[in-house]
Specification:
InterPro entries: PHA_gran_rgn (IPR013433). By secondary structure, the chain is of the alpha+beta class. It has a single domain, classed as 2-Layer Sandwich (TATA-Binding Protein). Helices cover 38% and strands 36% of the residues. It has two helices and five strands. The chain has helices at 14-32, 75-90, and strands at residues 3-9, 35-39, 42-47, 50-56, 60-67. The protein is globular. The termini are far apart.
Length: 91
C-alpha cells in the first residue's frame, strides 16, 4: 500500500497552527467527505481508500497517509496537492 510522508516547518504559535489545520480539515470534510477526529495534537482523517494523520508540532507539521488501491495511481498528484497546500499555509 503506497504511503505519503511529508514534513513542513512552520513558525506559527501552537494555537495558530492548530486553527489552520482545523480550517484545512473543514475543507477536507466538505470537499472530499473525509471523516476527521483530533487525537491530542494529531488530526486523524479517513475515507474509503485513504487514511492518515496531520500532526501539529511546535515547529513542524507532519502529514502521513496510506493510500488504498483506488488512490495508488494518484499518489504523485495527491502528494503534489498536499505540498502545495502546506506551502500556501505554512511557507
Amino acid at each position: 500500500m503506497p504511503s505519503i510522508d511529508i514534513r513542513r516547518p512552520h513558525q506559527l504559535s501552537h494555537d495558530q497552527a492548530h486553527a489552520l489545520i482545523d480550517r484545512v480539515a473543514a475543507r477536507m470534510r466538505e470537499k472530499f467527505e473525509v471523516k476527521t477526529e483530533w487525537q491530542n495534537e494529531t488530526l486523524a482523517f479517513e475515507r474509503p481508500g485513504i487514511s492518515g494523520k496531520i500532526a501539529v508540532g511546535p515547529d513542524e507539521i507532519h502529514v502521513t497517509a496510506q493510500l488504498g488501491m483506488l488512490f495508488s495511481p494518484l499518489k504523485g498528484m495527491i502528494e503534489q496537492e498536499i505540498r502545495r497546500k502546506l506551502d500556501e499555509h505554512f511557507a
